[in-house]
Amino acid sequence: MPIDENPIDALKHQFEMEDLSKSPVTERLLKIASQLPLGPFGKPIGWLKDRIAAQSAERNRLLLETIEDEVKKHASELERTKTVIAENAERTSPEVMLELLLDAVRKAENTRSKERVKRIALILFNAIAEPKAADEDEVEEMMRVAMELSDRDIVFLRELVKIEGTQLETRDHIPRYDAHTFWINGFWGDRVMPEIDSVFNKLESYGLVARIPPPNNMNIMADIQNRFVLLPKGTRFVVLIRSRAAIE
């Protein structure tokens, strides 16, 4: 960015290079964003409104409707925390907030699964609605992961959070013995299932879980089940894709 170019002008230039006037993003995006209790949207939202064509695209409609539904369901909650959110949001630049919104739209456009689009929307909404400044890198990474995980992957991850999640409430890791012991409380039990390796190896590749080394006294010739331990990032991901309606 040139020294004499301010962040807003730099953002405008970037959008112009991407030719967002042809992007299938609807005006509802702007309406919803402007209704969120976040002061930093301000001028960028007004400027963007003049730049984006009001065209319809199913994935973007789904993305925006998911955010809109969450806002409607929790309007009173958001109002109660509005001051806190606004105070924290002031530490996040307007262009960063807008970048996250546009990043979600871009990812939705490149995702075929409606459920994945919904998860992208929930990550964006939950990150913004939290009473703290959004972590741009975390939100972008979590939305990227949401694009890649299937519904079945999510089922397995949520089950692991269910049986091991409380172990991470007061510490940053789960001891090997505890993880090995709690593992069989999942719906998979102690069965040797090829699907377990397939799903959890994928989750491990995104840093959500980690493989547990087998016990030292295990017979190397035995056909044993591979076990995995939940990592903080896995718990955080599940929290961000959770609809607040499911929490109440």
Notable characteristics:
two-stranded antiparallel ribbon; mainly alpha; 248 residues
* Morphology call: elongated
| Poorly predicted residue ranges | 18-27, 37-56
CA-based gyration radius: 21 Å
The major β-sheet equals: 2 strands, antiparallel
- Number of helical segments? 14
Average pLDDT taken over every residue: 74
Give a written overview of the molecule.
The chain has 14 helices and two strands; from the N terminus they run ααααααααααααββαα. It is mostly helical and 248 residues long. The chain folds into two domains: 7-148, no CATH class; 152-237. It has a two-stranded antiparallel ribbon with strand order 1-2. The longest helix is centred in the N-terminal third of the chain and has 16 residues, at 58-73. The radius of gyration is 21 Å and the shape is elongated.
Secondary-structure blueprint of this entry?
Elements: H1 7-18, H2 27-35, H3 42-49, H4 58-73, H5 75-80, H6 82-89, H7 94-109, H8 114-129, H9 136-148, H10 151-164, H11 176-183, H12 194-205, E1 209-212, E2 227-230, H13 232-240, H14 244-247
Antiparallel strand pairs: 1-2
Helix pairs in contact: 2-3, 4-8, 7-8, 7-9, 8-9, 10-12
